[in-house]
Amino acid sequence: MQRDSIGLTNQNNELKFRIQSMEQQAQLRDALNETLTAEVHRLKLATQELGGNSDPSKGMVSQQLPISRQMFQLHQQQFRQQQQNGNTAAKSESNQ
């Protein structure tokens, strides 16, 4: 009976961890989607401003860097959260 209870508790904790991880992934996906939407909008505006310019890359490089940095930071944040979640789950399982 106690073994069943411990098994159910472990399963419950694992499911809670999975739900938390899925929620974080959804938040990161939403943030990434917003960033990409803003980048598309910015590129459309830059294209309109350039008009008939034969070299569309002029003037865009400096604007792309902040967006690229944001994307990189977002990926770093996601990676760290996944590492922390993995460490937290391993600790909680070893404590039981």
What is the beta-strand fraction? Answer: under 5%
Helix-strand category: mainly alpha
The helicity comes to over 70%
Looking at the structure, what is the overall shape? Answer: rod-shaped
Q: Tell me the total number of β-strands.
A: 0
**Uncertain ranges:** none
Overall mean pLDDT stands at: 78
| Rg | 22 Å
Distance between the termini: 16 Å
Order of helices and strands: HH
Number of helices: 2
Largest sheet: none
Task: Kindly summarize this structure in a few lines.
The chain has one domain (2-95). Helix 1 (2-50) runs antiparallel to helix 2 (61-95).
Task: Please describe what this structure looks like.
This protein is an all-alpha fold and 96 residues long. It has one domain (2-95). It has two helices and no strands.
Write the layout of secondary structure elements.
Elements: H1 2-50, H2 61-95
Task: Supply database-style keywords.
96 residues; mainly alpha; DNA-binding transcription factor activity
